[in-house]
Amino acid sequence: MKTKRTLTILFISLFALSVFAAKKSVSFNVMISDSKGKSTVEKRMKSQTGVMSVKANPQMGTVAIEYDDTKTDVNALVGAFKSAGFYASPVGESCANKPGGCLNNKPTTTNTMR
């Protein structure tokens, strides 16, 4: 009886945690120019813990990612891009105050990678 109650409490706790896990979306500016880069980025990012979906768009220079925020975050995703050999920053993030600035060295909040 005690084991059954313990298992029930455990099940309810796990269910409650999954309810509070939020699916989030973020788009990144990423320097990809062809289908090879697109498939490389999609494959590498899909293998990251917590990533649910990845859609790269070489024409726009963006990658949209849906992820579980209890398993990963934007900083970890930026690090994953970097380890895969790609420079990435969230769309709309100002790079003017970052070390090294923007790729074109102009303060901006728009996609400078097109």
Task: Give your account of this protein's structure.
- The protein has one domain (22-114): Alpha-Beta Plaits (2-Layer Sandwich), CATH 3.30.70.
- The radius of gyration is 18 Å and the shape is elongated.
- The chain has helices spanning 2-20, 35-46, 74-83; strands at residues 23-30, 51-57, 62-68, 88-90.
- With 114 residues, it is of the alpha+beta class.
- Mean pLDDT is 78; it is low at 103-111.
Question: Short summary of the structure?
Answer:
This protein has helices at 2-20, 35-46, 74-83; strands at 23-30, 51-57, 62-68, 88-90. With 114 residues, the chain is an alpha+beta fold.
Name the average pLDDT.
78
Question: Judging from the principal axes of the Cα atoms, what is the shape?
Answer: elongated
The figure for the number of domains is 1
- CATH topology assignment: Alpha-Beta Plaits
CATH architecture: 2-Layer Sandwich
Main sheet: strands, sense, barrel: 4 strands, antiparallel
Extended strand count: 4
Structural class assignment: alpha+beta
Low-confidence stretches: 103-111
Helix content: 25-40%
Q: What separation lies between the terminal Cα atoms?
A: 64 Å
Overall CATH class: Alpha Beta
Task: Please give the count of helices.
Answer: 3
Strand content: 15-25%
Q: What is the topology, as strand order, of the major beta sheet? A: 2-3-1-4
